[in-house]
């Protein structure tokens, strides 16, 4: 068989697999303010969704990708539109290519005689996040330049999960700049991050499947709360929360050789499926 014949056979088989729905991936956008835990959650989600039987592809954040490789946010007046337009173009191209990779991977699985698996692309940020960083008039110009509408950009994602920045509800854990272990490219102050978080949530208003995950439970349980709606979307077993009560025998404090105090300890565990 020639290369051309092989390609033709592949395209025909891929089209048939796509028509059956076996290679269509669900697309999830992880959004939120700076230092919300999105990048960390991506690794957790990839592991847990894979253990539950899904093919998972994670799409990195476009802004972090370019700024970590020498690109710096512009400071000259009037450049914001060009910056956001190019960032949106980069993000859409990355997402489209990752979705194609997911489809190719799923097609190869089907054509190889293996049973189909749920497929999901999890994106670090979504296309409407850029709206939160600029004035409304600038964003309107970006959409016009790229020939997009808000509705079109929202429709790209089956689910949007908004992770609230640590600057709101967990300020002690907010970090930015060279001292930021998770993302040194982050440049917002805590106050700026809180403003961006609220603006980002507002940018996604109207999406039919928008879930907000705050910092009320600590980060360990926060990522579990991110995992739950994605499992529901893809049709996978959801994480189960089990409460275990441990009774500690009271002892005579005066008999202890060191000072003691009462503490409350919460242990969060997630059962890893085989």
What does this structure look like?
The chain is built from 8 helices and 5 strands, in the order αβαβααβααβαβα. Strands 2-3-1-4-5 form a 5-stranded parallel β-sheet, sandwiched between helices. The chain has 274 residues and is an alpha/beta fold. Helix 7 links the parallel strand 4 (159-163) and strand 5 (210-213).
Secondary-structure blueprint:
Blueprint (H helix, E strand, L loop, with lengths): L2 H17 L6 E7 L5 H14 L3 E5 L2 H6 L12 H32 L7 E6 L11 H11 L3 H5 L4 E5 L26 H14 L6 E4 L5 H16 L40
Parallel strand pairs: 1-3, 1-4, 2-3, 4-5
Helix pairs in contact: 1-4, 2-8, 4-5
**Radius of gyration, whole Å:** 22 Å
CA(first)-CA(last) distance: 41 Å
Question: What is the count of DSSP helices, taking H or I runs of 4+ residues?
Answer: 8
Average pLDDT figure: 85
The biggest sheet, with number of strands, parallel, antiparallel or mixed sense and barrel status, is: 5 strands, parallel
> Helix- and strand-based class?
alpha/beta
Helix content: 40-55%
Number of strands: 5
The geometry reads as: flat
Strand order of the largest sheet: 2-3-1-4-5
Keyword list:
alpha/beta, 5-stranded parallel beta sheet, 10% strand, 274 residues, 5 strands
Short summary:
This protein has helices at residues 3-19, 38-51, 62-67, 80-111, 136-146, 150-154, 190-203, 219-234, and strands at 26-32, 55-59, 119-124, 159-163, 210-213. It is α/β, with parallel strands linked by helices and 274 residues long.
